[in-house]
Amino acid sequence: MQIDTGLFDHMVLQRAGGNASAALVTGVCERDGEVRATVKKSGRTLSGWRGRAVGSVRDGRLKAMLKGIPAGGPYEISLEVADRSGMPFDRATVRDVLVGDVWLLGGQSNMEGCGLLAGQPPSHQMVRAFYMDDKWRVARDPLHNLWSAVDQVHADLCGGARPAPKTVIGAGPGLSFGLAMRQRTGVPQGLIACAHGGTSMSQWDPALKDRGGRSLYGAMVRRLAKNGGRVAGLI
Questions:
Q1: d(CA 73, CA 24)
Q2: Cβ-Cβ contacts under 8 Å for 82 (sequence gap 6 or more)
Q3: Angle ∠(100,104,108) on CA atoms, nearest 5
Q4: Is the peptide bond before 163 cis (omega within 30 degrees of 0)?
Q5: 2-99 CATH fold
Q6: Whether the Cβ atoms of residue 213 and residue 130 lie closer than 8 Å to each other
Q7: Helix (H, G, I), strand (E, B) or coil at 210
Q8: Which CATH architecture has domain 101-234?
């Protein structure tokens, strides 16, 4: 089993109605079958979440909906695929998953981060970032690690080569926003970094969406889709 979108280690799932998750997970599997989920917190299985049927694999494509995991965490989420007799034949486990609010960070240099890194607020385990290398980690400035960006547009905008890592400047409003929202709402916060300094509105044109990772808007849409397509908002 390979999970392609919607569920990764250390991520934040966007909460929906009832202050709980409604996460769409997609992927691939060699054989068709029923998808079941088991969710644990601190080693204990949540009520109603031992082998719950959440989706299926059809023609090798996995689709599951994780609906009803309470805001908070961290959770360990295991997906298994079972054949018609009910016998599991494939399994994947994702760890340290939170449920709360997720935000897209878009724009130019102010959002990318042009403040001094020294003296920035301390990180918090319940505030995470989806960095530009497509990995979730505890949020720390600089959030926009352009030097490791997966999407080619960020190298193209730097003359074809990715920039050197930032060591002095790189602090933006994203981390402070996430920390403040966690304190205000009491739920985990996730930040999806998408900004790039020195860009124009035309470079963020939605008409460029079909260029995918070769455009800023397309890259942002790709990163949103990879994380399930649900967020609380865009800043």
A1: 18
A2: 33, 34, 36, 88, 89
A3: 150
A4: no
A5: Immunoglobulin-like (2.60.40)
A6: no
A7: helix
A8: 3-Layer(aba) Sandwich (3.40)
Q: Is the pLDDT of residue 121 over 90?
A: no
Digit-coded pLDDT (tens) for 13-56:
999 989 999 999 999 999 999 999 999 999 999 999 999 999 99
Spatial distance between the Cα atoms of 173 and 43, rounded to a whole number of angstroms? 35
Contact by Cβ (8 Å): 130, 231: no
Query: Under DSSP, is residue 82 helix (H, G, I), strand (E, B) or coil?
Result: strand
Measured distance CA(121)–CA(80) in Å, rounded: 40
For residue range 132-178, list pLDDT tens digits in order: 999 999 999 999 999 999 999 999 999 888 888 888 888 999 999 99
Helix (H, G, I), strand (E, B) or coil at 146: helix
Q: What's the Cα-to-Cα distance from 112 to each of 2, 135, 174, 180, 226, rounded to whole Å?
A: 31, 17, 9, 18, 20
Handedness of CA 137, 141, 143, 145 (dihedral sign): negative
Q: Which of 86, 80, 11, 71 is nearest to 41 (CA)?
A: 71
Are 128 and 10 in contact by the 8 Å Cβ rule? The answer is yes
**The residue to which tokens 């250390």 are assigned:** 10
pLDDT tens-digit map of 178-200: 999 999 999 999 999 999 999 99
CATH 2.60.40.10 maps onto the chain at 2-99
Q: What is the C-alpha R_g of the chain?
A: 19
Q: Which ranges of 121-231 would DSSP assign to H, the alpha helix?
A: 153-156, 173-185, 216-226
